[in-house]
UniProtKB/TrEMBL annotation:
InterPro entries: Elm1-like (IPR009367). PANTHER family: MITOCHONDRIAL FISSION PROTEIN ELM1, OS02G0535700 PROTEIN. It comes from Gossypium raimondii. GO terms for cellular component: mitochondrial outer membrane. It holds the Pfam family Mito_fiss_Elm1. GO terms for biological process: mitochondrial fission. It comes from the Eukaryota. Coiled coil: none annotated. This is Mitochondrial fission protein ELM1.
Amino acid sequence: MRPIRLPEPPIGRRSAAEVFEAGIYGIIKRVVVIGNGFSGAENQCIGLVRALGLSGCLTLYRVTRPRGGINKWLHWLPVSLHKKLDYVIRQICIYSGVQVEARWGKVVLFAVEKTGLSSVIEADAKQIAMMARDTFEKEGPLLVIASGRDTISVASSIKRLATENVFLVQIQHPRSRLNRFDLVITPQHDYYPLTPHGQRQIPWFLRRWITPRRPPARHVVLTVGALHPADSAALRSAASVWHDELAPLARPLLVVNIGGPTSSCQYGADLAKQLIAMLQNVLWSCGSIRISFSRRTPEKVSKILLKEFSSNPKVYIWDGEGPNPHMGHLAWADAFVITADSVSMLSEACTTGKPVYVIGAERCTWKLADFQKSLRERGAVRPFTGKEDISESWSYTPLNDTAGAASQVMKALAARGWPIDA
């Protein structure tokens, strides 16, 4: 797009109303993403930015919590209070020379330098809001996209401090005061606690704290699963990048993605042993199998699978070294087996339209069980039983949540008079 030379305002800065009416500054050309340091949340923002065509205009900030030691027990605190408490603890530990970590009722000593914040660009609401205001006439409005509980306070503060200069999209349900956001994008299972069955699972005195306060409003966009950057262009690129390694593999190629237990989907070595037995039963119908672990996969689970399959010529297990083959697997796989705990991995795989088998869905509770139900009802997933013929394919309408959410963002921006600079 050719740069436009803007006229100088006659006296001082134009008011937001005058700028909006004139329409010459109302083009979205830049995005700020507020992340929390976890790929599951940040990839949703990045996927939405890609779908909006603004990948080259992205700046990433993070809201970081103190990590290590006793901090893992304090994640329920508001970020600001957690940081203050961490500072006090570290000062005490610097004075004493050691730190303590509560683990299984014991006191464990470890070095001071294992705690503290990661060295990333810390999100400062006042600074970002000031930037949005000061550069509004030259750069236009600022699109802010945030995801995750820890980002809510910072993102909503940016909107409050620069209301006329910012369009705020919050991914994942903020639970209350939705009027702080221009648009909320959240999976439909976030509203499971409002269903009669969900209400029966919550003690009455906890309901106001862990459930959405009202049904979806007009500015709430509901998705089936998580947003992600694995769009068709990304998969075509990954297919090219991973061609030499994955194209020669014997077909059909079964990709097995293993996440990690969560409070709503608990498992351990028992699931690993169950998975081994099932994979051995379908091995005859596979040309090759590729297994990947996530950062959340317990060591006891990965060790069991490594011991069983490391010498099998049909099976390759990515050990975490070298480039992550995840995107290549999405592009080249003929079918998937995925543990039920990961909304992100299931959402990505169900975007491909290829067969997706789920293991461990019967262990899911709460909102995760509702998510599994919605995928089954769409015909996007089937339970993995170990009796499958992997060479047999089946189809369904692929999930299209990211593109659908991007369309809703564009529509909301257009209603504001702020089209995206395409």
